[in-house]
Amino acid sequence: MPNKQRMKEMEDAIFNFLDNNRGRYYNISDLSQLSPINKHEHKYIKNILNKLTRSGQIVKRGKRFTIKSDKSQTAKPRTVVGLFDATSLIKGYSYAFVNHDDGDVLIDSEDISNAVHNDRVLVELRHKKRGLLYGSIVKVLERATTRFTGNIMAYRGKSIFIPDLRKLHVNFSIRDLALAKASDKVVVRVVNWGDFSMGRKPSAVVEEVLGRAGEKDVEELAIFKQFDLPIDFPDQAIKEVKLISDEIGKDELNRRQDLRNLLTITIDPATAKDYDDAISLTRVLNDGSEMELDDDSGSLKPLGYRLYVHIADVSHYVRLDSALFQEAVTRGNSFYFPRHVVPMLPFRVSNKVCSLRPDEDKLTVTVVTDFDNTFSITEQSVYKSLVSSSFRLNYDEVDAFFEGNKNTVPEEVHGLLSNLRKLSAVMSKNRYKKGYIPFHIPETEVEFHESGKIKNLHRSVETESHKMIENCMLIANEYIANILNKKTSRSLYRIHEEPEQDDFEKMFKLIKYYKINSRKEATMQKTIQNLLNNMPNKNYRRVFDFIILRTMKKAQYNTMPLGHFGLATKNYTHFTSPIRRICDLTVHHQLKRVMEKGAGTADDLFSSQKTNNDNEISLAYIAKRASSQEVLADSAERESENLYKRMFMQDKVGEVYESIVVSVNKNNIKVELDEVPVTGLISLDSLTDDYYRYYPEYMELIGKRSGKVIRLMDRVKVQFEKIEFDLIFTALEFRKA
Description:
The chain is 30% helix and 29% strand. It is of the alpha+beta class. Among the domains are: 4-74, Winged helix-like DNA-binding domain superfamily/Winged helix DNA-binding domain (Arc Repressor Mutant, subunit A, Orthogonal Bundle); 79-142, CATH 2.40.50.140; 147-226, CATH 2.40.50.640; 650-735, CATH 2.40.50.140. β9 and β10 (172-176) form a beta hairpin. The relative contact order is 0.07.
């Protein structure tokens, strides 16, 4: 590097040139042509320009520079605040985005300052091109976190920290190893965020050594640490739990509808331990009485059916002014992992006191829906109740019963299930007519050996029993949302906005290009229904369901009923899972206030209440917290899923699989294996038969010499090569779908 005097000479030359050409903009290539700068010194121009920019002597617009004039000194550039998204950088692109309320801002890699993924940043807007805003990050306002988990690696006599988070686009130098050594999994704290424009890495110190990287328990602990999941409950919350009585007092019994005589069932996954919903179904006779579905009505004529959706009354035990409620707001929801659950409420509340376990009296809130004999709704109501679940069933055994296979379903509930199945079919049909979009994106299920080792991975399957319970919950949630919309000025609603028209048009064009028989309908919902219906086979759904889904906006919580696009309903809320979601628990409190005191009494539930992090509690705060914690849960659970996939594949290097192309970009081909729900990348650099050009509009690659096309839906025989941040495969053979 030139000495300080030479660097100063080059700096003066650049500054004087810009000063003599005020109002004009020059890029690095232009400035490298200045006669005082030698050819071998061109690489130092960027450092000089960054220095002059930081000092305020020159200004940058995109990739060009100019002297800072009097006008530019007084003009206030437009700025926005948003969250930095480094996803594009991880995929190999030279830009990233900042997401803010009015849209996304594209940030070139040299303009990201020292921001990392999810940091809250201040962005100066530069210009708009082809409808896209461009800008540069001028300041990091708030770090998403200052602690990260990852591995220690030795490199050329120095220790480097490789973060676990895939979207952290930079490695760290280590100032203090503490007791850590190479290949350890550690927690580090950042002490200096570096300067990306000057090529200076951020640095950190090791705070905790978790164990050897690659060991299952160590890797799981790292996920908990990285996402800062709240494992322990505050002392005051534990004290409150100990004071909760298992007994139900006579006064409380007298305030409720006693439904313990109803045949009542729960249907959940086989591994579930918190049962917050149960179902009953009876026949309504023309004298107003009810009968069980297998009974003889005698001379009385059945008028229709009565569906009971019983939801655990968690709000009876978790009061608004309690430490338990404050902690529930902080957590937002329960976090579910293949081997662990981080609950929103302590297990004594979620798995015992409130869980609708068989043959135990439980407090509930029940939504009652009456249907006529054609399964059209005639009346609905809601009240506080007392139930005792008769049987605990799981989805597998109910599906076996429906399919006529050997099963363990008690004979006493055969009639209930058969009639509920018919009712569900009609509810599905009616929802579909309204525009309901029937997505099912399979989740990865991990099968373990008794020893705890991973045995296999499976794709989840949405079965008839899942859809049946979902229909029952949807009808209850929508009814409660309608009540709260009529009786309160604000509540908590589950909203899902329409896709952006441009995104929708691009997706539709892509679908048509792949010769899927599709047409535009009267609404976006109907168009998407048509697309899904015309997928030729399951492989198409494997590829295009994700593409269609990415077109849509993410559902979230709001205090106003802004509609739910995916469900095609105006008013919708979450009411049926108060054990595991703060929205549902809050809605129960609001509903009970309305039921007890009438309209308008539930608008302001809180009086100077704060969370255990000293945040003021309000409906708006809970809506925001519930939305952000849901995103956190999705990220943590996805990271856990990726961990198990890597562990499952780690001893399979060299094995050959059949796969399908599910995505393409300018750097990689993404494939999904047929045998197991595992995705991985084929680097374009590994394709030596030709140079492939990427065409983003159609997500395909075309060989420059051969004209060979690689696109979505292509079949690929692959060989597993190695594990990096992603699973890396080598392509052995491409075949057309």
